[in-house]
Amino acid sequence: MRIVIAEDDALLREGLALLLRAESLDVVATAETPDAFLAAVDAHGPDVAIVDVRMPPTHTDEGIRAAVEARSRRPGLAVLVLSAYVEQAFATELLASGTARLGYLLKERVGRVEQFLDALHRVAEGGTAIDPDVVAQLLTRSRPDRGLERLTARERDVLALMAEGLGNTAVAERLVVTEGAVHKHIRSIFAKLDLAPDDRADRRVAAVLRHLESARGLG
C-alpha cells in the first residue's frame, strides 16, 4: 500500500508517517500544502491519500478540494480525510460523488491506533470508513424523514454502523447479535426506506446517504 500524507501540522504529519512505517506500510511522500500534495499524487501514484480538511492558505476547505481533485486525476485513489471536529458540509461534499474508497475520521481517532489502521485498510480495500462521532452528529441533525421515522431503535443502530462502513459481520459483533439478525434488520431498513430489500452494496450506500442528504439539508 503506497500512501501520501497531506497535513500542515508538522508533528501530526511526521507522527502519522512514523506510525504507518512501523506497520510496514509504504509512505511515499508527505506534504504540507495542497499544491505539494497534488504534485506528490502525480509523481508517486499512491494507492491511498490521508488528507487534512483544513490546509493553507486559508485553512478552510483546501484539503477537501485537493482530495476531490486528486481523485479526478487518479481514479480509484482511496482517500482518508482527517478533521479536528465534525464538519457536516465537508463530510457530505466529499461523499456526494460516491462513497467507495472514502473515509472521514476525526483526528482524535488517530490515537486509537487499531481503529485508525482498520479504517485505513477498509478504505484501501474499496470500502467506506466514517467516524462514529461524525455519524452520530449527522443523524442527530437530520431533518425528519418519513422512512427514517419508521425505523426501530435497533434498526437505527444498524444503519449507524453501516454508515461507518461496517459489514454485516462487524455490525453483528458490535451489537452482540447474530449475522442473521443483522440481515433481517437490514432487509427491514431497505423496505422502510423504499429500497429493494437485498444486501447489495449500492443499497447499503443509498440507505446511508438518506441520512447524509437529510443532514445536508440543514446546513
TrEMBL record:
Give start-end ranges for the coiled-coil region(s): none
**Response regulatory domain residues:** 2-117
Q: Where is the HTH luxR-type domain?
A: 144-215
Q: Which UniProt keywords apply?
A: DNA-binding, Phosphoprotein, Transcription, Transcription regulation
Is the keyword Glycosyltransferase assigned to this protein? Answer: no
- Name the InterPro entries for this protein: CheY-like_superfamily, NreC/VraR/RcsB-like_REC, Sig_transdc_resp-reg_C-effctor, Sig_transdc_resp-reg_receiver, Tscrpt_reg_LuxR_C, WalR-like, WH-like_DNA-bd_sf
> Do the record's keywords include Transmembrane?
no
Q: Which residues carry this modification: 4-aspartylphosphate?
A: D52
Q: What is this protein called?
A: Response regulator transcription factor
Species name: Actinocorallia libanotica
